[in-house]
Each structure stands twice: as C-alpha cells, then as structure tokens.
Specification:
Elements: E1 6-8, E2 12-13, E3 24-25, E4 28-29, E5 36-39, E6 44-47, H1 62-69, E7 76-80, H2 86-89, E8 106-110, H3 114-118, E9 130-133, E10 138-139, E11 143-147, E12 156-162, E13 165-169, H4 177-180, E14 187-188, H5 194-211, E15 214-216, E16 225-231, E17 234-239
Parallel strand pairs: 6-7, 7-8, 8-9, 13-15
Antiparallel strand pairs: 1-2, 1-14, 3-4, 5-6, 10-11, 11-12, 12-13, 15-16, 16-17
Length: 240
C-alpha cells in the first residue's frame, strides 16, 4: 500500500518523515489480511473472509488458509463481518463464483452498514440472509460485540471468552502495527471518520492492555494475534 495511506492529525499524509521502524517492501507498506475462525465444537464462526478475487490476489487466500489450519469450509455455520470493506466480505464467494461456505446458516453484518452490504452486486445471493447486529449483542454463549466505529460507520469488534481467557477480534483498529501502537493518533486514509477512528483505537488499545486480553487484527502481521501492553504514554504489541 502507498505510504500516503497513513494520515497524521489534521489529515496530513506522511512523506519522507516516516519513522525508521516502519519497514517498506519496494517502497510500499506491507498489509497483512487475516480472518479468524472460532470453533465452538459444533461449528465454526468465521470473522471476516478476505477479498477473494475482488482486489489484490494476495488478499484472497482464505481457502488455502483454512486448509492449512485443518478447517473444513463445510463446518463454517456463521460468518460475521467487522465491517463491509471489500477485503473483508468478498470471500463469501470463491474466485470461480461458487459459495465458499456451502452450509452457511447465519450471516451477520453491522446494522449501520447493511445498506452497504446489499449494494454489493456480486454478493446479491446473500443479501436476504444478512442479519444486522449492534454493539452489546451476543453470538452464542462465548462472543459479544464491542462498538468500534470510525473506520467505517458500523465497524465492530468481537470479544470471545472461553476457559478464563479473552480475545478481542478487532478488525481494522490498526493497519500498520509498526507505527500505530507507538503512535495511535495516526489514522488511515480509508477511515470514514478519522477522529472517531482515532478515539476508538485509543479506547480499544487501553481496553486490551488493562484487561490483559489477547487481540486479533485483520491487518496485524500474520498470524495477527498477540497482546497489547502499555509503554509510557503509548502502547506496544507483543505477538503471540
């Protein structure tokens, strides 16, 4: 991704002043794209699905990732979206046009973004299945939804609790982990409301650090799971 996707306060793009700790690949930012599977013993709840073949080809490798993890796509019973950007929703459909999850029973979309989802012509066959959710709702007995608006109108997190541990699957709260933990005021060009996105990021970083829970991020370096700890007035990410 271009460096200019990053925004300093005041909606100013970064230039040559990008901090040294941000490693570039061919002069570009490297952006991981992760999805997360929750196995409750009966089936799989999948959080986000990647882009399939709707954007860059490296954003559409969910089928290979499921195979690598030993997860049969037929066990996916529910798909939940943190938000409706195309690198999170188009994995419902395989590159050849077939359904990615043949036994899908539930499809949960942030209520504020249901209209965005239903505007995606390629996903038309799923429009009627989509159920809106809002912050505070629960999915089964182990997952509750945490508001994280800003990156998009209904951007949401999923907090999973099991065996005395918690993990916060936080979508696009952080795009560039080498920078935004240390400088959480830095936003992303595609944040629909940059001020609100900044406020949500600060709140969620503090929540994760103070609650000692794991976090899982769509754009954290693969595998995208770890812990957040406070570091002075800022934060630090400790990969799992």
């Amino acid at each position: 991704m271009p460096i200019g996707r990053l925004r300093q306060p005041g909606d100013k793009p970064f230039g040559d002043e990008l901090p040294q700790q941000v490693a570039l690949v061919g002069g570009q930012l490297r952006l991981s794209v992760n999805a997360f599977a929750i196995d409750d013993g009966d089936g799989i709840i999948l959080i986000d699905t990647g882009a399939s073949n709707a954007w860059h080809p490296t954003m559409g490798r969910l089928p290979e990732a499921l195979d690598e993890a030993g997860i049969d796509a037929g066990r996916v019973r529910a798909v939940c979206f943190t938000h409706t950007h195309l690198d999170h929703i188009h994995g419902l459909v395989l590159a050849d046009g077939r359904d990615a999850f043949p036994r899908l029973a539930r499809l949960l979309v942030p209520g504020e973004e249901l209209g965005f989802f239903r505007a995606e012509a390629r996903l038309e066959r799923f429009h009627g299945m989509a159920e809106p959710f809002e912050a505070g709702d629960r999915i089964g007995t182990h997952v509750d939804i945490v508001e994280a608006h800003g990156h998009e109108a209904g951007h949401s997190c999923f907090r999973v609790s099991s065996g005395g541990e918690r993990i916060l699957i936080w979508g696009d709260t952080v795009h560039v982990p080498s920078l935004q933990f240390d400088r959480p005021e830095v936003t992303w060009e595609f944040d629909a409301d940059q001020d609100q996105a900044r406020e949500s990021r600060l709140r969620l970083l503090a929540l994760a650090a103070d609650d000692h829970c794991f976090v899982a991020g769509a754009h954290l370096d693969s595998p995208g799971v770890g812990r957040v700890v406070r570091s002075g007035a800022s934060f630090r990410f400790e990969p799992l």
